[in-house]
Design goal:
The structure holds 2 protein chains of 2 kinds.
Chain A (H helix, E strand, L loop, with lengths): L3 E2 L4 E5 L4 E7 L4 E9 L6 E7 L4 E4 L2 E6 L4 E6 L8 E9 L9 E3 L3 E6 L1
Parallel strand pairs in A: 2-11
Antiparallel strand pairs in A: 1-3, 3-8, 4-5, 4-9, 6-7, 7-8, 9-10, 9-11
Chain B lengths: L3 E4 L2 E4 L5 E7 L6 E7 L5 E8 L5 E2 L8 E7 L2 E6 L8 E8 L10 E2 L3 E5 L1
Parallel strand pairs in B: 2-11
Antiparallel strand pairs in B: 1-3, 3-8, 4-5, 4-9, 5-6, 7-8, 9-10, 9-11
Classes of the chains: A mainly beta, B mainly beta.
């Protein structure tokens, strides 16, 4: 049962344009969401996160949008740069507001390629 | 930023041997560390949650006697793959969480360890 889904295995974007990466989840207990960037044979690098009490969080070129009713989140990268080319994973945590740390459930990842 | 290291970065071993992988949080204390494995072109799958000073919590389907986890200090967790077999070949990644701030749940990942069992 895939609780976090990234339905697009790959995305190709021209440099300078917007990259939009999508993620859907099924578990309504998830209340914290994160995006990670990963290069082959390396660990994921944290990019940006959002709590379920918000619907948007912005950090530089990266913005994450959360639509709780649709159980959908997206990562926008503007403007896209060739160095952004990597695999992007969304992840979700449940009961993050409690006293215990919630484990992360990852999506399958989306390969982003930004062409010069 | 928070840095997590792993050692070794890659290891090749013979079937039947045991391999120990270390995960260290270099500039913060982590009461909780996580161990993941990733097969080629697949997502990261959580194997276990490692809590400092207590037994690890394993995910369903993960053999605790095969994947031994020790979290002896607030900056070090180890994963030992006992009697490794070729099917254990994978990319193992650890993560650590610094002390929780209100509303923050960020995990920082190590660079990963590539294990190849011949």
């Amino acid at each position: 049962d895939q609780q976090v889904k990234q339905n697009s295995p790959s995305l190709s974007v021209q440099e300078g344009r917007i990259s939009i990466l999508n993620c859907d989840y099924t578990n309504s207990m998830f209340d914290y969401f994160l995006w990670y960037k990963k290069y082959p044979a390396e660990g994921p690098t944290f990019l940006i996160s959002i709590s379920s009490i918000k619907d948007k969080n912005e950090d530089g070129r990266f913005t994450v949008f959360l639509n709780k009713s649709a159980k959908h989140l997206s990562l926008h990268i503007v403007p896209s740069q060739p160095g952004d080319s990597a695999v992007y994973f969304c992840a979700a945590a449940a009961n993050a507001g409690g006293t215990s740390y919630g484990k992360l459930t990852f999506g399958q990842g989306t390969i982003l390629t930004v062409h010069p | 930023g928070a840095v997590v290291s792993q050692h070794p970065s890659w290891v090749i071993c013979k079937s039947g041997t045991s391999v120990k992988i270390e995960c260290r949080s270099l500039d913060f204390q982590a009461t909780t560390m996580f161990w993941y494995r990733q097969f080629p072109k697949q997502s990261l799958m959580l194997m276990a949650t490692s809590n400092e000073g207590s037994k690890a919590t394993y995910e369903q389907g993960v053999e605790k006697d095969k994947f031994l986890i020790n979290h002896a200090s607030l900056t070090l967790s180890t994963l030992t793959v006992t009697s490794a077999h070729p099917e254990d070949s994978s990319f193992y990644i650890c993560s650590a969480s610094p002390a929780r701030l209100a509303g923050e749940e960020t995990q920082y990942f190590g660079p990963g360890t590539r294990l190849l069992v011949l």
